[in-house]
Design a protein that fits this description.
This protein is of the alpha/beta class. It has nine helices and 14 strands.
Amino acid sequence: GITVIPVPMLATNYGYLLIDTVTGQTAAVDPCDADTMADAFALYQQFWQNTHGVQLELQTVLTTHYHLDHAGGNLSMAKKFPGINIVAGHLDNAPGATTRLQDREQLQLGRLKVTVLLTPGHTKGHVMFLCGAEDSAPQTQRGMTTPQQCPVLFTGDCLFVGGVGKFFEGTAEQMHKNLAMLGELLPAQTLIFPGHEYTLENLLFASWVDQENDQVVEKLQWTMQKYRENQPTIPSTLGAEKTYNPYFRWESPEVVDFIRQNLPEALPPGTETPAPELVVGALRRMKDLNMHQ
């Protein structure tokens, strides 16, 4: 089975420990702060030994993209864990990378299969990591996230809960293709583990854009309660994102009408449904301009 341990780092970042519960093979996802990640691993290594009698081994780093708040700990991880395999996308200039994989290439982590998904836009070589267990026996562990038969997706800075990342090196067309690909490729119960805790600000924007959407209101209220309790808002699911994340709602008449009213130059005149990438691009531009504040 799969266990995912969120490791908060810096101000808003999430790194993760991805554990194959059968073999103890472990990967660190986006360990921007190597000290924090190494401390978390040591803690769970002891816990795992005590509770499972299995020795965790950290032999892999999975890097979604080269930005320092994701890959800045790679070189230190290589020193702390000699021989560690630092995996990145083949178009990405991630520091310390020892393995560069192309779109849909796979690697094995114990009995887990990890697939690279090329998702350009935030950076030109940005990748996600999709993880599934070869045996999917349900597991229950206290105090940690333990997906059962659900695929697990580490989305970096492409997809957040309720939002998407900025298009620093790509286009709205690429972002739309990424989201459409996820919707076609993966089941609704796929668990989404993003690179940042941006949920509240994303849903405040969504509640401005998609004002009649009860799913947005409900998720925003839930998120505010989580923030009051100082609790994380991850993971999400792909199915849930399609209901309240405005960037998935390019066919929504309400979202399109809102853009026409508030940023009319972003869409062609008329009443026809605009191209999806125009809707996605307009939403990101409105967010970048902080029009909702």
